[in-house]
Automatic annotation (TrEMBL):
HAMP domain span: 246-298
GO CC, alphabetical: membrane
Protein name stated in the entry: histidine kinase
Highest classification ranks of the organism: Bacteria, Pseudomonadati, Pseudomonadota, Betaproteobacteria, Nitrosomonadales
Keywords: Kinase, Membrane, Phosphoprotein, Transferase, Transmembrane, Transmembrane helix, Two-component regulatory system
Localization per record: Membrane
Amino acid sequence: MRIGLFTNFCLIFIVLVLSLLILLSSQVLGTLDDITAAERQKHRSLQLANELFQSSEDLTKMARSYVTTGDPAYERFFFEILDIRNGKRPRPRDYPTTYWNVTDPPAPTALGKAISLIDLMRREGFSERELDLLQQAQKNSDNLVNLEKQAFAAIKGLYDDGHGNFTVSRAPDRDFAISLLFGERYKAEKARIMAPISQFMRELDNRTQTTLSDLQSKFQQQILLILAVLCTALFVVAVATVYMRRNILHPLDYLSRQASSIAQGSYSTRCDISTHNEIAELGAGFNTMAEAIEHEIIKLKQVEESLRERLKEINCFYAIRRGMESGSLEEVCRTIFANLIAAMQFPHITTIRIEIDGKQFVSGQYDKEHARGLCKQIMVYGQPYGWMEVSYSEEQPFLLPEEQNLIDVIGDDLGKWLERKQAEARILVERELRVRDAAIREFAAHVERMREEDRKYIAREIHDELGQLLAALHLELSLLKGVENSKNEKVEVIRRNMSELVDKATQSVRGVAEHLRPASLGLGIISALKKLTDEFRKHSGLSCSLHLTQAPVDLDEDQTVAIFRIVQESLTNVARHAEASRVEITLSRNADDLIVEVRDNGKGFDSADAARKKSFGLLGMRERAAVLGGGIDITSIPRQGTVVSLHMPIKQNERIS
């Protein structure tokens, strides 16, 4: 049998078996569902029958409790139970047998639809015989209810008028009511209720047990059928496995061994397969392939000799490329001479000349009077940069096509090497420039820090030393009031003038010290900007508003001084050049940067012109920001104002606790 037919047969068999198993499984599941449904119906039926019995018990309990205690709640519960059973009152959703043990009625939300107990039994599909028994039990229970109603009437002083109506009024008779509910007649009526219920239970049990037995028998038959199908499938699988081993796996193993023999170099190997399937055709194809391989091997041996000639050219190419990895131009040219001449067809008469950027390099046996030659132009970044000339000094057949290709590739590689060298030189220059720029910025930062330290020192000396001297002088002048010469009007005028001069000098000293090193810098950038804004508003007369971020800002001293000086320089430029009437200063921050903006409504200026003139004020602000890793954007439109925006990375101030 052919493998394709065999696999189709196996596939069809597997599909059929699986389909049959699925069908049988679905039937088994259906049977299980039927068994479950029968069990549930039996349970519901028994529950309804028990409810009939339990409702009769609950009515008896409520009736006896009422005639014994006289509590009207038991009477109300009695009629509620009766109305629920007869379908006159909504049935509670959760109605267990102990429902009426509670003293409160069910909640309104827990009530369902009103339906009688007999209607519920009809819905469950009871037989006519079973329904007759249940109805007989309920009829007997209703007879018992009449006795209970007669007892209720006796408690209230109402008696039967002979027509079944309790309209005759006499004195209440509790003993008569108790004798009705606890007498022999009442017990006999209770016994009559249980007889049909017991018969119903036997009928129901026999019917449901018969149904369940039939379903279980059907379930067992279906399981046996599934087992029979599985056994048949296992037998077929065993037969198919034996067939596959004998007619497919063993021939394939033999074919694999023959293929391994060819892989080991035995190209005369052939295979003989006696099966009548696709593997036999594969063996025939294998033999054809083995013959073709043997023929190609013979041809490859013929090509091998030619490849040896090309191998030295390839070795030359890689040796030159390795030589280009390091070394100077002279060393690269010597490497090209040594390897390219050895790779040529006639190395003893080969000469090479390389001319690059006005420099000329020639091989040891270069002959200007060569008979044949070939030039290769060397290109660097797409521009001619030099030449490489390979020539023979004798009249011999010129270069082979492969040798010409080798010369072209070496010339292209030499051009790329020159490009790489130039790029490396540019990278070194750029790296050195970056190092120098970083050093300059670091030096500028150091100079700025030294300048701030000097300002701080000078401001402290002026404030502490000169300020104290002026204060002492002012005190001495104030003491002159008490001396006798103070009565001299001229001396008093001189004293007052000197006192005023000392006050002005004191204010001047404080102003110079504040300008050199504002005391508010020690309180943080927010306090410093507030003080700077107040001073600018006071001296310039312009409207100046400050908008601060709500987030906390904690900067180190270098950042605080840089931001303060940049804002100070910006306000100075506004006062001197902008002709503005309003200035806004905004301090905000995002996740990583602190942003400071100084915006005015002045006449603006030409940014490009300012860049060409190299304004030292703007240049100083940019340098201060760059030293701390920030940047400044200056946007100015003529007659529309100027915006100076500072972006600076936040470096948290490290404090020693």
